[in-house]
Known about the structure:
The complex is a heterodimer of chains A (122) and B (108). By secondary structure, chain A is mostly beta strands. Chain A has no helices and 11 strands. In chain A, strands 2, 4, 5, 6, 9, 10 and 11 form a 7-stranded mixed β-sheet that branches. Chain A has a 4-stranded antiparallel β-sheet with strand order 1-3-8-7, with no helix packed on it. The radius of gyration of chain A is 13 Å and the shape is globular. The mean pLDDT of chain A is 97. By secondary structure, chain B is mainly β. Helix content of chain B is 0%, strand content 45%. Chain B is built from no helices and 9 strands. Chain B has strands at residues 9-12, 18-23, 33-37, 44-47, 61-66, 69-74, 83-91, 96-99, 103-107. In chain B, the strands form 2 sheets. In chain B, strands 1, 3, 4, 7, 8 and 9 form a 6-stranded mixed β-sheet that branches. Chains A and B meet through strand 5 and strand 10 of A and strand 3, strand 7 and strand 8 of B.
Amino acid sequence: EVQLVESGGGLVQPGRSLRLSCAASGFIFDDYAMHWVRQAPGKGLEWVAGINWSGGTVRYADSVKGRFTISRDNAKQSLFLQMDSLRADDTAFYYCAKVDTSGLGVGRFNPWGQGTLVTVSS
Amino acid sequence: SFVLTQPPSVSVAPGRTASVTCGGNNIERKNVHWYQQKPGQAPVLVIYYDSDRPSGIPERFSGSNSGNTATLTISRVEVGDEADYYCQVWHGGSDHPVFGGGTKLIVL
């Protein structure tokens, strides 16, 4: 069974950093691109970042570019999101999601992890 | 960027058919994916590439895409189908996915 489990969320002050992790199992991790998608409480889905199978290509939403860094460790079947200079509007549930392709720009998100909540507040 | 427009809510009686629309400029040229999100849960893929169903998704769920509108159709609606539904495409040239704003399906 394909499974994605996020961790690392919590309460953090504005301007500080947080690192999210996503542990993958049940599939050949380095065959697929991976993504982070977030959802502010009561709001819709917003894509955050994506990384191709090797980690050689990454893409970011304009709202996080220059502040967030997506990375992966294929040997450990793990996906990461380093979030720096956090702001109140970064408060959201953060989901990792697998796509059915190795590259970016195509594919469906399936499955999604259960999400981890990041709250940015003083 | 590419904008996807969904109605905020759709109401339907149990046993009837619900249609959730997703509007976008020439959306028929894109592959549309649909996700169901129940309260407190992660999104789940229910339709991909306009009209294909993942394993485990009931045949009551179907999709179509024509012109400027993609449609998710749920037949014989059940109370358990009450959820938020999101459409998604890829914005060509930027490798960025785009989500619609979501539609809350209300089963009366």
